[in-house]
Design a protein that fits this description.
By secondary structure, this protein is an alpha+beta fold. The protein contains twelve helices and 20 strands. β6 and β7 form a beta hairpin.
């Protein structure tokens, strides 16, 4: 992917360190569905998919692939009591067309080992007992023309078609809309509701693009949209891909005050945009499947979603294994002069580490994702400059790596630098300490009686304005601390009346970096209240 609007599509030393690091993790599972079997242990190389279904005749055709290329024919258990053998593809006719079937395909290897994969053959519509979902994040698949407008000047919105009723043969339009709306409500929670709302809402539309072979995000449009190929709703929908593109829409319009979209665009965008979309798609799928009952989803539909997620998480695992086996070739820059995307295995490794950490700790995905986005929400113009999306430099490489590793560390309240350094990520410890401290020290409004505002401008050079609001009279002082917690400046403001106040602070004699400013207010009755925020000086 060259731009943010993408259409998706020493080895032993490195591996040994990772094994040691991973060995201390417990593989406990706290839910029915888990990615653990596909993240850890032997790789699953077999995958099966539905190529076509004729609900009138009961004839289905299944395809698939096994990366091991076994020479022995696969065993096909069709779910209706019939068992056959053969290679991909295979066709079968069901006599009873009033129900759905789970097909199990078994691979046989020369070593004597086997692997298996399941897929749902849907002949009748799923049963959903819908619950009320937020209208703010509703997803629709329009049955008529929708004109998109761009809310980001650098991009023009495409002119796309729509999906007619003929595309919804195995699942209804309304049911797909419901599933996507449920996933969207989860992803909105992932960003802690901190997202730019074009037109005052985050309703998404899914439109048809017959010129592509997959799907892509149109994060910059009003309404926010997804472009999909003709095949996306033929047979079982590719739910994981849909969750992925919605993940782009949320994370590129996040945070509301300074969205990443438009600011990390270019050949270095993927380490953020693709890592986040991968994390969001698998985290949202995990939460949806493991809370299926609360969304009124039937077991057949849950299996369908599970199989889509399993297929995509195996791609993540394969890319991670490739990254390690090739000596951990970290890359945050996708060279526009070369056909391959050099960043692919790197951003997949970030996604793998997030999913592996969540599964290993057994705490689920929702809270780690919410913590991660709280960290990334501290994105500032100074960080945007350090990210430097338009240039290939060692300094930018290091910042991009450190930004993502610090966010993942905050997500799990654990310093993940050792395992990412083992993966040869060029982490800058100074930047890491600043970013993590910046998040830890940032707080919302202060205690009762004192409201501390964010300084402006921020980042600044060399002067900035610090505002605050007093509920009652107090003796006030402003203190400035460096990243090590040493006080470097103090302004004694004396006795001040209730109400809003501000003071300009000049930092011309200080070096660039993150600083913390604290307001201390001593009240007449001897009580002291204080509040602290962070700011960034860039020269």
């Amino acid at each position: 992917m060259r731009g943010v609007r993408g259409r998706f599509v020493t080895v032993f030393f490195c591996a040994a360190i990772l094994i040691v690091l991973r060995s201390s993790f417990g593989l406990c599972q706290d839910s029915n569905f888990s990615y653990s079997p596909y993240l850890f242990g032997a790789r699953h190389t077999l995958s099966v998919n539905v190529q076509s279904i004729d609900t009138a005749s009961g004839v289905v055709q299944l395809g698939g692939v096994d990366l091991q290329g076994p020479l022995t024919p696969f065993t096909w258990k069709w779910g209706d009591g019939i068992v056959t053998s053969g290679f991909f593809p295979q066709s079968h006719k069901y006599g009873d067309r009033s129900r759905n079937y789970i097909v199990t395909v078994v691979a046989h290897y020369s070593s004597g080992n086997t692997d298996s994969s399941r897929v749902l053959v849907r002949l009748v519509l799923p049963v959903i007992d819908p619950v009320s979902l937020p209208g703010l994040t509703a997803v629709t698949i329009p049955s008529g023309k929708v004109t998109l407008q761009s809310h980001w000047p650098a991009y023009s919105a495409p002119d796309l078609s729509f999906f007619g009723d003929n595309y919804f043969t195995t699942i209804s339009r309304a049911d797909v809309e419901y599933i996507l709306s449920a996933a969207a409500s989860i992803e909105m929670d992932f960003v802690n509701d901190d997202v730019y709302l074009p037109g005052g809402n985050f309703r998404q539309v899914v439109l048809r693009d017959s010129s592509v072979g997959g799907a892509y995000s149109i994060w910059y449009s009003t309404p926010v949209a997804l472009g999909m190929s003709n095949s996306m709703f033929e047979g079982n929908p590719s739910y994981s891909s849909l969750f992925h593109e919605m993940g782009h829409n949320f994370t590129l319009n996040f945070p509301a005050s300074l969205p990443y979209g438009g600011r990390i665009d270019g050949d270095a965008n993927a380490i953020y945009s693709e890592s986040m979309a991968q994390i969001f798609q698998h985290a949202a799928g995990y939460e949806l499947v493991n809370n299926a009952a609360s969304y009124g989803l039937d077991s057949d539909l849950v299996l369908d979603i599970e199989q889509s997620l399993i297929a995509s998480i195996q791609i993540v695992r394969n890319a991670y294994d490739d990254y390690v086996s090739h000596g951990c070739p970290f890359a945050s820059w996708n060279d526009p002069s070369t056909p391959p995307d050099e960043t692919f295995d790197t951003f997949m490794t970030i996604a793998y580490e997030f999913c592996a950490e969540a599964e290993s700790l057994g705490t689920g995905f929702r809270e780690p994702v919410k913590r991660m986005t709280r960290a990334l929400a501290k994105f500032s113009t100074g960080m945007m400059q350090a990210y430097d999306p338009s240039h290939n430099s060692a300094a930018a490489d290091s910042f991009r790596a450190t930004l993502m590793v610090s966010a993942l560390s905050y997500a799990f309240d654990k310093d993940l630098r050792p395992q990412f350094k083992a993966l040869k990520f060029p982490i800058d410890d100074t930047w890491y300490d600043q970013l993590v401290t910046y998040v830890n020290q940032s707080r919302p409004d202060g205690p009762s009686g004192l409201r501390l505002l964010q300084n402006y401008p921020n980042p600044f050079n060399p002067a900035t304005v610090i505002g605050f609001d007093l509920k009652e009279s107090a003796t006030v002082r402003i203190e400035i601390f460096d990243i090590l917690g040493q006080r470097v400046l103090e302004l004694r403001l004396g006795r001040m009346s209730p109400g809003p106040h501000d003071r300009t602070v000049n930092m011309s004699r200080f070096s660039s970096g993150i600083y913390f400013y604290r307001i201390r207010a001593d009240r007449a009755r001897g009580e002291t209240v204080a509040s602290t925020k962070s700011m960034m000086l860039i020269k």
